[in-house]
Write a sequence for this structure.
């Protein structure tokens, strides 16, 4: 995927997250936003995997350590959804761990517990 295509996909994903936030507002559980975002991705024909298991490889063995990305979009972008007071370093560390284990390098932490969603989006590039 070229940079322009990735930028376009990123724009669509963020736009759909904003739409979900406009409809629901802050204050719900993360799972509500996740299900609504999955609905939006499906209707927009955006390929995604929800609750994607991320295993650890250890000595040629796959070990399921209960790591699960909220979304992996088109095998290119990791989305971690939150509904918290603020994004913390531990949330960033979680995304960096997923980068290391998946070899992906672009991700977003989206915190829906804000008045204006653009203030709750953190883009991380490895």
């Amino acid at each position: 995927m070229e940079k322009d295509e990735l930028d376009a996909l990123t724009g669509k994903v963020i736009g759909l997250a904003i739409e979900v936030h406009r409809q629901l507002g802050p204050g719900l559980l993360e799972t509500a936003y996740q299900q609504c975002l999955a609905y939006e991705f499906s209707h927009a024909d955006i390929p995604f995997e929800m609750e994607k298991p991320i295993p650890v490889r250890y000595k040629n063995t796959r070990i399921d350590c209960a790591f699960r990305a909220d979304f992996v979009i088109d095998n290119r972008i990791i989305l971690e959804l939150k509904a918290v007071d603020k994004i913390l370093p531990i949330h960033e560390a979680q995304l960096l761990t997923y980068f290391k284990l998946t070899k992906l390098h672009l991700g977003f932490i989206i915190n829906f517990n804000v008045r204006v969603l653009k203030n709750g989006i953190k883009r991380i590039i490895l």
Notes: Residues 3-125 form one domain.
